[in-house]
Amino acid sequence: MRHLSATSLPAGALPLLRGMAAFGAAELSVRIVRLITVIIIARQLAPEIVGVAALTLTLFELVRVLANIGIGQRIIAADEVDLDALCNTAQRLFWIWCCAVAAFQISVAATLAYGFGQDVAAQMLAVLALVYFWMPGGLVQCYLLLREGRASTTARNAATQTIADHLLTAALLLLWPSPWSIVLPKLLTAPIWLILTRRARPWATNPAAGYAPVKGLIRFGLSVLATDMLLALRSQLDKLIISATLGLSALGTYYFAYNAGIGIVSSLITAFGTVAFPWLCTSPEGRERAKNLRLVLGVGAALFIPLILAQALLAPYYVPVIFGPSWSHAAPLVAILCLAGIPMLFSSITTLWLRTKGQVGLDASAGLLACLCALGGLFIGTQTGSVETAATYWLAGLSLGILPFAAVVLRRGIRTTSPTNLKEIVA
């Protein structure tokens, strides 16, 4: 067997692999602590109580995506001469945008309380709106770190906050078995990320550099946001559909299975895309970038597909042992949800490739198709009254909405430079 060495790898591949290793180590640490937390949740809380926390966190994750306006992608890909002006404008926009998102989340909480009678979930959602006031102070610095290839630093910062979140959750659950114990740590650990990021990459506004035009940044950012929002709807709206059709107890089981299964793999896939995007952006266009796309595909498939299959096949064995006999009924659901990692992997690689080429509109259209297929399949499945059947239909719809499009785009990306529009892709 031929082994890869530093000399046999494509030019520039070592930074990618180092970044992936850093993210992998960080994510492994996070997953170990997260697993402990999920075990404590499973053993301390009934599905109904988990369902209340799941409803709150699902709405929080949906709204939080709005804060990730794609301006940061422009910082990563910007020319050096435009960087200072772009960062100046981005800082202002981050503050305005995050304050608007906080106000929107409070309005969602009010609707949840007065429109649906979910007072506890509404109170927790309103408290979590305070998270958005910690974010703007470190976003420019975070994207500058990624631009400079310091993915290991951003991985370490995020992992430190997440580990603190899970440890605090576990401690609170042991002392106070309440949905608040799952939700409050998200707010209490937010300053950790801000402090670590600002220390890792000092930055201050440079008024002498001026400001970049807002219109171009907003147009690009909204296109990226549309794709991210569709991805969030695809990954979060399923929980709202389960809650509305099958009830909070079914939602608690589904939420547990999601976190025990695909929640782990999806976070690793997200980290993989975070590392690969700036690396592809710095690759020369044409054959070199196509060759690097081939490497990203190969490494991604080799890393994740065996992990996904093993996790799905072994679910009937490890779920009752790790999480307790009372959750053994969720093992088939965990296995089904694990398999969703395969279309998610190819969706992530397709998205970063299209964004590298500036084709964010096409990426958003593909995201809409995948979202409609996945949620449509889930809704059809819920009519049977079985959460396992609903998850199976969701997986089928997700695969149908992602895999054919990804196959065409990535095949063309590897063979040529890039498509420029949908007509060229399907030609």
Kindly describe this structure:
The chain has 427 residues and is mostly helical. The protein folds into 2 domains: 15-212, no CATH class; 248-427, no CATH class. 80% of the residues lie in helices and 0% in strands. It contains 19 helices and no strands. It has helices at residues 13-44, 47-65, 71-77, 83-116, 119-128, 136-147, 151-175, 180-188, 190-200, 214-246, 248-260, 262-281, 287-313, 315-323, 331-338, 341-356, 360-382, 387-415, 422-426. Helix 12 packs parallel to helix 16 and helix 13 runs antiparallel to helix 18. The longest helix is centred in the N-terminal third of the chain and has 34 residues, at 83-116. It is globular. The two termini are 38 Å apart.
Provide a compact summary of the structure.
The protein is mainly alpha-helical. The chain has 19 helices and no strands.
Layout of helices and strands:
Elements: H1 13-44, H2 47-65, H3 71-77, H4 83-116, H5 119-128, H6 136-147, H7 151-175, H8 180-188, H9 190-200, H10 214-246, H11 248-260, H12 262-281, H13 287-313, H14 315-323, H15 331-338, H16 341-356, H17 360-382, H18 387-415, H19 422-426
Helix pairs in contact: 1-7, 1-12, 2-4, 2-5, 2-10, 2-11, 3-4, 3-6, 3-10, 4-5, 4-6, 6-9, 7-8, 7-9, 10-11, 10-17, 11-15, 12-13, 12-16, 13-15, 13-16, 13-18, 14-15, 15-18, 16-18, 17-18
